[in-house]
Amino acid sequence: MFDFDRWGEIWASIRANKLRTFLSGVTIALALFVFITLFGLSKGLQNGFEREFFPPNVKAVHISGGKANLAFKGRMSDRLVELKIDDYELLKKETADRAAMVLPRLERMISARNFSEYGSYTLIGSIPEEKDYREFEILKGRFLDEFDGEDIEKNIVIGRMVEKDLFKTGSALGQPIQLGKTMFRVVGVYSDKKDEGDNERLILLPLKTAEVVFGTDVLSGMVVVPEESLPLSAISEMADEIRKLLKAKHDIHPDDTGGIRVYDPSEGLETTNLFFLVFTLIVLIIGIGSLVAGIVSIGNMMVFSVKERTKEIGIRKALGAKPSNIIGLIMQEAILITFLFGAIGIVVAVLLTNAIQDSLVDYLIYDPRVEPIRIVMAALVLFFAGIMAGFIPARRASKIKPIEALNEGK
């Protein structure tokens, strides 16, 4: 591989066919450039689609109680199954390795009043993670923390529209609000990053405070948000496990479709995943097509190179050169040209996709940077492309008979 005489011969061959080498090299560089850039842009489009239409909480598993239709283990049919705080604690423990967060749902409609201004709003017993799940942005003050819950503080966080309804142009921060018959203090005002008005008409208070105020530990439901990296198949398995776990805890027949309702988001997202799979396959086909064109170009160049060097190869064989030496020489030249120009194509494509970043957000393309694994894959493709481009011409060259080569052209 490090035979200086052989490298000298390869360089001489390249210099003798500069234009042909350049055009063939540009073809393989362009092929790899298209291959990587297309993958980057398709990834950016997928990122944009998920960011705009599928926020992180879209993969959340929603759980609620209901009526158990079947009698089981001495329990009557048509009984109401209620989820409680201990169910929330159980789910937190059982899904700790797969869930980013588990949120309880303790909600009530309540009348809120600030002097002469009043309105009816949804009051939610909340935990600190609620802010990240709902993608709230704190405009004033702070969100609820763990100390609010531990001390059963009468602190609340209200939405921007609640502040506008009850305080008009004034600030609600630090002010008292009457909820039902109890007074609470506003410690924060939030807005919804998604700019959804209904989500800005919520009032949130610590979960433990809500238990005391409502006089119950019965939950409206629960939400399990899986880890972002968890695949849809694993989310579906987790939803099934949650269903079985809660059915066993509440003595519900395994075949009962009521009692415990678990919404599995993977069922609705499979169609979206299929769309991106088809899209990726189309991009892959186009990329492979461009690579094949590059390989064919290099292969044609090497075929012409072998044709022009027939006599030289015949002399080499007459002087005792082995077929493996001839194959090595031709393939080494093909691999060199492929790697040299292919590396240029890879570098340019990576620089371009890194430079784009979020400049194409208007076209739903977010962060089209190519992952390292794609670059490694491109390098492997490049290596095999060089082998494929050189093998057939090299094999043909190794079969040239010395006497026929020396007589060619006479």
Helical fraction equals: 40-55%
Shape verdict: elongated
Residue windows where pLDDT falls under 50 for at least 5 positions: none
- What is the string of SSEs from the N terminus onward? HHEEEHEEHEHEHEEEHEEHEHHHHH
Report what the structure shows.
With 410 residues, the chain is of the alpha+beta class. The protein has helices at residues 4-16, 18-53, 85-94, 130-134, 146-150, 160-167, 207-214, 232-249, 266-308, 310-318, 323-356, 372-398, 402-407, and strands spanning 61-68, 79-81, 83-84, 99-114, 117-126, 136-141, 155-159, 176-179, 182-192, 202-206, 218-219, 221-226, 260-263. It has 13 helices and 13 strands. It has a six-stranded mixed beta barrel. The longest helix has 43 residues, at 266-308. It is elongated and about 110 Å long.
Features of the shown structure:
410 residues, alpha+beta, 6-stranded mixed beta barrel, two-stranded antiparallel ribbon, 13 helices, elongated
What does this entry show, briefly?
With 410 residues, this protein is an alpha+beta fold. It has 13 helices and 13 strands. Strands 4-5-10-7-9-8 form a six-stranded mixed beta barrel. Strands 3-11 form a two-stranded antiparallel sheet.
